[in-house]
Amino acid sequence: MAKESFDRITHDLFADEVRPGRPKSNPHSRKVQLKINKQKQVLRDRQKGLKRIELKVDSELFNLLNQLSEEQNINRSELITQLLHAQINN
Fold first, then answer.
1. What does the pLDDT read at residue 20?
2. Does residue 57 form part of some domain?
3. For position 45, what pLDDT does the model report?
4. Is 77 a domain residue?
């Protein structure tokens, strides 16, 4: 008898099956977990009043932004936000 990973009826038939690795602590597949986590992240951002902006830059600017954010011990998003605020306020 074959058992599917989403089969909820016959799981007790395979209870003695020893599987290598860490025990599964979440009933969802990794793909579903990632989707749920992304939805939660979007909701948290929305509650904080944050809006998403997609920005494409060349690799030289990208590396410079990464370097500056590491020097200031902030993430790249916070650095770009600070730079935009400074530009707008000037």
1. 73
2. yes
3. 92
4. yes
Tally of structural domains, the chain: 1
Asked, for residue 43, whether it belongs to a domain, the answer is no
pLDDT tens-digit series, residues 16-75: 666 677 777 888 888 999 999 999 999 999 999 998 889 899 999 999 999 999 999 999
Q: Look-up: residue for tokens 């992304």?
A: 38
CA–CA distance, 66 with 64 (Å, rounded to integer): 5
Nearest to 77, CA basis, from 53, 41, 43, 47: 53
Interatomic CA distance for residues 44 and 33, integer angstroms: 16
For residue 77, give its domain range: 53-90
> Is 59 part of any domain?
yes
The structure tokens listed for 40 are 């939660």
* Encoded tokens for 56: 């494409």
Q: Taking Cα atoms as reference points, which of 22, 21, 4 lies closest to residue 13?
A: 4
